Amino acid sequence: MRASDLGPACGASRMRGGRGGKALFGWFLLVTCLATLPLKAQAQTATTSSLFVERFQTPLIDPRWIVSDGWHSGEWFSSEWRRDQVGLGPQGLVISLDRNAGDGEKPYVSGEISTSEEYLYGYFEARLRMPRGRGLVSAFFTFTRPEGVESWNEIDMELTGYDPRRIELVYHVAGQATLQVEELPFDASEDFHTYAFEWRRNAIRWYIDNELVHVSRRGRVAELTRPQRMFSSLWNSERMPRWLGVIDPSEAPWKMHVACMAYAPRYEGRSLCVD
Predict the structure, then answer these.
(1) 69-83, 111-125, 203-217: least confidently modelled range
(2) What is the reported pTM?
(3) Number of folded domains that form the chain
(4) Residue 82 lies in a domain
(5) CB-based contact 85:96 (threshold 8 Å)
(6) In this structure, is residue 142 part of a structural domain?
(7) How crowded is residue 190: how many other Cβ atoms within 10 Å of its Cβ?
(8) 49: pLDDT confidence band, cut at 50, 70 and 90?
(9) What is the CATH number of the domain that holds 120?
(10) Domain boundaries, position 102
(11) Is 247 in contact with 238 (CB distance < 8 Å)?
(12) What whole-number distance in Å separates Cα of residue 42 and Cα of residue 191?
């Protein structure tokens, strides 16, 4: 879910629950919340189909990237975006979520990056290690909402810190979410793994470590027709405990490590981030 397009007027929550309880509790109210919000400004650039692989070895001064800064995502989210929460480490990009020690409306600060360009279809990939912790969401996704809820298109891969052995695969069309939960054969907080999806006109093919884990073909997939930007973010909430668990402030800071993000016009049978 693109938490970064929520505004302070949002008055509903994202509730959910897992498979058998926690994985379905919660989409309705967050979707309702998003549908009522005024639009925030977005980078509008020409759609591109050029392959790129970004390993984050140098500071984010490349015009390809936008770092969210100086605002928050509404009352149901407990962190605000700060540029200085996005930095570099030995293994690439580091997004830090910490308690807010300065000014601001939220008790926590965190980071988000996105491409400045938009993409219509193609293969999207990230290699990352998520933090463990209740209340946290590590997200890799594409998103657009240029003209209100009816123009909303989004494709998400989300890892919740309370359950690092499960991933939520979601796509959104005009405020309606379709969710698939997949169990992982590893703890996603212990090491880097590759998360990817190929967005086609009539299907979304989801990959983990270059293995196909799910295909979304029916429903409203064919209505995902708008160019979207690619994002990665780490965020938290104190107000959605039934979905995320109750955050423990004493565990701060949390760090999400992103070794690579990449795009190609199509999937060629191999990972872009792993040589």
Answers:
(1) 69-83
(2) 0.86
(3) 1
(4) yes
(5) yes
(6) yes
(7) 11
(8) low
(9) 2.60.120.200
(10) 3-37+47-264
(11) yes
(12) 33
